[in-house]
Amino acid sequence: MAYLMNGSVTFGARFRAAALGLMATLSLSACATDQGGARVGSASGAMRDGGIVMPPAGWLNFCGQNANDPSCKVVRLDQTRWKELQAVQASLRAVRQVAEKKGQADVWQVANGQGDCEDIALLARARLLAAGWPLSAVRLATAWTENGDYHTILTVDAVKNGTPITYVLDNRFAVVLSYGKLEEIGYRFHMRQAARGPNWVAVRS
């Protein structure tokens, strides 16, 4: 994961929550569709990320000497950023969710007044990017809801009070919720965009 902050360097926090990896190659319709036991595929010979480990001492020293390197810099989630999240979340409630017709191709596009859950999540993403949020911290994700429906939302990686946390913008709710809170509600997260590039990664509990 990449974490949102605002100019300060908190290198350890970045590595405590690096992206979990398994490249996803499935193209899914992700609104109230039960995908059953669908598995995430990966190309033969592709490297898969494992658990988080402490980086080499040399890399820590490098970041100490090169604080402006993009891989070393993290940004604090301050009140301004939090208000931006809340404003975008509130704006999603004004978008009318409509389901795609059966047999119709699954087309993802930024919602314009109406759209399905993927379109609404793309709208949230577009608004945060326009506000200057880092691309690597604003990622689409899919999950099964507490009702068993397959759903698309937007995840936002941040560091709050020195602790990594992932927030979720979901048009089903009136407020911004944390990833952990949605798991408590009954969400089962499936996959999300990789921090870089076009691939997606599996979400591991």
From TrEMBL:
Signal peptide range in chain numbering:
1-32
* InterPro entries referenced in this protein's UniProt entry, alphabetically: Transglutaminase-like_Cys_pept
- Signal found in the keyword field: yes
Enumerate the UniProt keywords alphabetically. Signal
- Its recorded name reads Transglutaminase-like cysteine peptidase
